[in-house]
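thought: fold this chain, then report.
action: predict
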Amino acid sequence: MPKLKTHSGAKKRFRLTATGKVKFRRMNRNHLMRKKTKKAKRHLRQDGYLKGADAKHIKKLLRVA
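observation:
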């Protein structure tokens, strides 16, 4: 049986931390930033973490679990 390939879209968008959490970059950060408040931009700088079924699904796409 051939090796399973990693989902190329998922590998560009998600990273796994050392503890196994799924880390992602927030959306709405690319352009039209002048409209957004300082507070909104500050919160967008922080990475997000998936949990539950979403994290399980992404780990499957990354061929970890």
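thought: worth noting. The domain at 8-61 is CATH 4.10.410.60 (Factor Xa Inhibitor).
final: tokens above.
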